[in-house]
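Appendix C reproduces, verbatim, an entry submitted by the partner laboratory led by Prof. M.T., so that reviewers can inspect both the input and the predicted structure.
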Amino acid sequence: PLGSEIGTEPFTDEAVSAMTAELESDPPQPFDLARRIRVFSSKVRYVELKVFNARIGERRVKLSSELLGIVDDDLKRRVAGELRAPSELLGTFRVGVETAKGIREQDVDSKWFQGERKRIEDEYTFLISNYGRLVFRTEWDAFKAETERLERNLTAYREALLAAADAARENFVARLVEEFLPNLRRNPPRNLARFTRGGPPSEEDLRSYLDTWVGELVSKVLDVAPPRVHVVCKDVAPESVSDEAFERGLRASMAKKRVPHQMIDSLFESGDAVPSQEPRAGTPLGSSA
């Protein structure tokens, strides 16, 4: 005969204590609040749009005090200089910008991409001060498609900038060598004298030294890492759903963007949750998740 499957193990005092401690540290949500959380989470989620290496062409590197012609030890610690990309890389570049309707040729720069990021956030997300941004699940696919286009456009811009950098590199290095050469004539680097048998370095020595040194600096300032657009999303915490300040902030943010009041009210219902579904691209605002 089959043995009993239930009640064969004693419920010890240690087990009771462990269960009690767990309930105290993570108590169950009140029934109405738990249902509200399910309703809320089925319709919206937190989202954060992070863009890395978007400020293309604005990289800077520190200049050595020797290049600046500073010999005073105290001033060396106080005076700092920076090398920026050449002017050829600070303007706009003509690239094929990808849009929802296709490719169009357009002049773009770093500021244009900052505006694109803001447009995407303004169009699809709702900012709640001190909490973050929310996006409707029904608009998730459209939001994600926009961010992926943003990354592809940034990549196209980087390729145009790198091509211009290659064309400008040789002239940029030559100009910098001529700029810094007088300082090195007056104050030759000590380590260079070690390799010129203790005598003053020749003009050829100085130019060769500068070519290498400046070339390394220019490579750093033109080293443009690939841009990356990263979207971080997570569900809304129970604490937020029950927080009056959070609710006021979200209602105000959504009302400002003309979200229908019935849609806003539905977020805070405590009835049965609508089963969550993967959103479809282009689903109208306010349709079922």
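The longest helix spans residues 140-186. Additional entries are available on request from the coordinating office.
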